[in-house]
Amino acid sequence: MQKAATSALQTITANRLADGIVVFLGSHDRWVERIAEARVFEGAEAIGAATAVGEAAAAARHVIGPYGVDVTTSPRGPVPTRFRERIRAFGPTARTDIVEPAFDTSVAA
Amino acid sequence: MYRYDEFDAAFVRQRTEQFSDQVARRLSGELSEEEFRPLRLMNGVYLQLHAYMLRVAVPYGTLSSRQMRMLARIAREYDKGYGHFTTRQNIQYNWPALKDVPAVLRLLAEVEMHSIQTSGNCIRNTTADHFAGAAADEFVDPRPIAEVIRQWSSIHPEFSFLPRKFKIAVSGAETDRAAIRFHDVGLQAVRGPDGGLGYEVWVGGGQGRTPMIAKLIRPFIEETELLAYLEAVLRVYNRYGRRDNKFKARIKILVHETGEDDIRADIEEEYARLKGGSLSVPAEEIRRIEAYFAMPPLPPRPATSDVLEAAKAADGGLALFCAQNLNPHRVPGYTSLTISLKPIGGIPGDATADQMDAVADLAEAFGFDEVRVSHEQNLILPHVALDDVADIHARLVSMGLATANAGLVTDIIACPGLDYCTLANARSIPIAQSISERFGDPERQRDIGPLAVKISGCINACGHHHVGHIGILGVDRKGEEFYQITLGGAPGEDAAIGAIVGPGFSADEVPGAVETIVDTYLAVRRDAAEPFLLALRRVGEAPFKEALYGTR
């Protein structure tokens, strides 16, 4: 588990164990593929509790390597603040013919 | 093509079943990720930015049509319909599900392929000249000895936990197309004083954060003694290579810190103990393996093809393709044909499943069933008749594979970069695409001449930026992608490490900067026959710096 960031807003992300696909912690502690459906946690207490849910899911073999991602909110859902995390969340920027990006990764948060 | 013997087949089958069991135990929770990670890496399974990634070995870059079709099938059934050919002549799948990897490995085993030792601190796939067995300037096919090395290095018990990964490359031609001086060990075939075949042994080359040109540690070792000598090199490395610092663990650092003379003495001392022992490979065994790589039966043909000359006269696109993508073959009337995986604005090294199938069909119809993967991330049909080139070209056009740019500015090497890789600091592919589009005009590229642009998304240098005539390195500057440009690198017998030309550029600025460099070259070159690298070496960096930064 990576160190919890200090940002006010975070989503919890991981890779699904069976297929490696990037997932986010959604409502009712379900893991969802689209960051738009991810829950956003605010403040150290909520982020800490969500992180514990992620760790429990890793222990239960649903996901690998859960960690918190700093985000801002937008009308289309949470957007990671770091560029690398935006690419991870939205897909490779260069393969739009095959992998449909859900979001323009070049857009600054 | 080499064919697996009973040992090879049983070994690959055992490893596939072993790893299948490990995957099942991971999915059932018997193995933690911590326990499973080294096991999956030994079998070429990484966890990348978006998903798992499976790296499949293509020994010395040689494939049959049957194998290529299987790679296509795997791309279609277990990935998103494409694969990525790498700078180590391998193929990577970017989206396989872990639960499907055992099935993929079984399919690979059916065509005598696997992903063993494509990761981890072991001896990796041995690479070779992609025109091996065909090039006019070659005097020995490097693949048989590469196959001997493959057999020796596969699950070598002593060398499965080296300080760091270990890469070997072999060349048997006058021109070094395998970048042997930038490998942990590079082997150059040479004739000894009595005419016998042997190898120069270059040790301690590499790129990454500390680029080094290998040292010629032994100018000649008989082919029968090569494995014993390699064993000595690996033993010295295994014993003295640093394990305390990952960044100083490659053999290049050991060679550099120990000194050329002392490391040579260590290796020779070890070799003296091994010489003439069980690692000596009888010449008849090497000849037996060579038979697998024999030149296909090429019917005699005139050196010039009237059919092709007439077709070229009628089709400018074909003429351009022939001028750029054909390499001289040692047999008159034949050629080695490069299928560029660098369409203008495309992703270097990517091929769709349909394209892979099409290449397999072409190899079967026209190329004696052989395909090669180059470290430049292209595919090659090594033996085709000049008479067939127009037909092949027409089919390539229909598959979007006829880009006439081999060796030109748009034939860009690029690592997957931040679009896929967890190690990357910046994207490589979009930079390659924007440069490719900037220089897409065929006439302009031809006028510029041979020019190697190589792009890495981080200091690990998978995109070979250190040896690019123009090298581009992506870095993270305060959370933004930023790119350093180096000039003057060269991977071959004139090996050189590029020098940083000055302050870096934003992603948007890179194509313009490359254009400024190219325009400067066009202005300073003596004539069109003086290529970029020679002009740069003659005039030095100053005019390029001035053009890039003069007004800053």
Protein architecture, described:
The complex is a heterodimer of chains A (109) and B (552). Chain A has helices at residues 43-59, 83-90; strands at 9-16, 22-25, 31-32, 41-42, 63-74, 77-80. Chain A is an alpha+beta fold and 109 residues long. In chain A, β5 (63-74) and β6 (77-80) form a beta hairpin. Chain B has four domains: 6-110, Sulfite Reductase Hemoprotein, domain 2, CATH 3.90.480.20; 135-292, 2-Layer Sandwich (Sulfite Reductase Hemoprotein, domain 1); 306-398, Sulfite Reductase Hemoprotein, domain 2 (Alpha-Beta Complex); 413-549, Sulfite Reductase Hemoprotein, domain 1 (2-Layer Sandwich). Chain B contains 18 helices and 21 strands. Chain B is globular and about 55 Å long. Chain B starts with 5 loop residues before the first helix and ends with a helix. The interface between A and B is medium-sized, with 23 and 31 residues.
- Helicity range of the residues of chain B? 25-40%
Number of helices of chain B: 18
Oligomeric category: heterodimer
What gyration radius of chain A follows from the Cα positions, in whole Å?
A: 13 Å
CATH superfamily of the largest domain in chain B: Sulfite Reductase Hemoprotein, domain 1
Task: Tell me what portion of residues of chain A adopts beta-strand conformation.
Answer: 25-35%
Looking at CATH, which topology of the largest domain in chain B would you report?
Answer: Sulfite Reductase Hemoprotein, domain 1
* Cα-to-Cα separation, first versus last residue of chain B: 57 Å
Could you say how many structural domains of chain B there are in total? Answer: 4
End-to-end separation of chain A in angstroms reads 25 Å
Q: So what's the CATH class of the largest domain in chain B? A: Alpha Beta
Mean pLDDT of chain A: 87
Instruction: Identify low-pLDDT runs of chain A.
Output: 1-5, 105-109
Estimated structural class of chain B: alpha+beta
Helix and strand run of chain A: EEEEHEEH
The helix content of chain A is: 10-25%
Query: How many strands, which pairing sense, and closed or not: the largest β-sheet of chain A?
Result: 6 strands, antiparallel
CATH architecture of the largest domain in chain B: 2-Layer Sandwich
As residue ranges, the low-confidence spans of chain B are: none
Most extensive interface: pair and counts?
A: A-B, 23 and 31 residues
Total number of β-strand segments of chain A?
6
